[in-house]
Amino acid sequence: MSAVSVPGAELHAPAPIAAAVAAIRAQCALVPEVAIILGTGLGGLAQAMTVEASIPYDRIPGFPLSTVESHSGRLLLGTLGTRRVVAMQGRFHRYEGYSLQQVTFPVRVLRALGAGTLVVSNACGGMNPLWAPGDLMLIADHINLLGDNPLIGPNDASLGPRFPDMSAPYDAGLREIARTVARERAMTLREGVYVAVQGPNLETRAEYRMLRAMGADVVGMSTVPEVIVAVHGGMRVLGCSIITDQCLPDALEEASLDRILAIAAKAEPHLTALVQGVLERL
Asked: Could you tell me if residue 160 is inside a domain?
């Protein structure tokens, strides 16, 4: 595969990252090629893995704890198809009260474990009127409206450059592979812009109009911080969203968490097939 895995990267990592890596290595020696972050309602992708180790977050130094009921809070190491992978079954959000440095700390650890590619998934609200709940969207670009950035503060040059370039945060080659997989499997795969907001409340009609006018196709409360840190660390990134509800201001319905999770669960096999297809071609 073209991404470079760095099995010795933890030797040069700052102490908190090295401590987390050591705790993981004590449970499993597998060196992952690909890291996967599984979002709301998407943890079932892990069922397609051959799991060698399942480590609760509370056993990994420095990892926050998931407070969202749809996030399991475990780190899985094993294989998906022919690739060695590490998967976060549950992620963290700014709205849980964590700083973006805490939210993205696991990405630093995944990189230090050896992963050179990051696959991020999420559930999101769709603002493009031509798309429907249950559609998959390939993330082509993003807008950060979190009011914060995980790279604020002193820069550690061992982790990445002071001013990382973000002209193409979502790898063009990986996106092309994903489009090819979708065509071969006759899957609907949209492509567009993801905007990240703080939450935890959903948006007003006026806010949806504003976000759509800014150029966003979908809206969510995650993903962007992890992608920024992954790019900072030199990782290739593939992002995919499941559209779980339509956020059309002139036809807006009250959101239902149960319905959102049900739509995510129904679309999840398609996401699993897409990710597996991409990994087979790396």
From this structure: no
CATH of the domain at 220: 3.40.50.1580
In a domain, 35, yes or no: yes
In terms of pLDDT, which residue wins out, 77 or 40? 77
What's the total number of domains in the chain?
A: 1
- Could you give the CA distance from residue 231 to residue 118 in angstroms, rounded to a whole number? 9
Amino acid at site 185: R
Exposed, middle or buried, 266 (CB in 10 Å: 0-12/13-18/19+)?
A: middle
Instruction: Answer whether residue 53 is part of any domain.
Output: yes
pTM metric for this prediction: 0.92
Q: What is the pLDDT of residues 154-212, one digit of tens each?
A: 999 999 999 999 999 999 999 999 999 999 999 999 999 999 999 999 999 999 999 99
How far apart are alpha carbons 155 and 178 in whole angstroms?
33
Q: Tell me, what's the pLDDT at 3? A: 40
Per-residue model confidence (pLDDT) at position 281: 94
The alpha carbon of residue 168 and the mean position of all alpha carbons in its chain are separated, in whole angstroms, by: 16
Domain that holds residue 62: 9-154+166-280
Residues 92-119, mean pLDDT to the nearest whole number: 96
Q: Which of 280, 45, 273, 278 is nearest to 178 (CA)?
A: 278
Residue 27 within a domain: yes
Peptide bond into 200 cis (omega under 30): yes
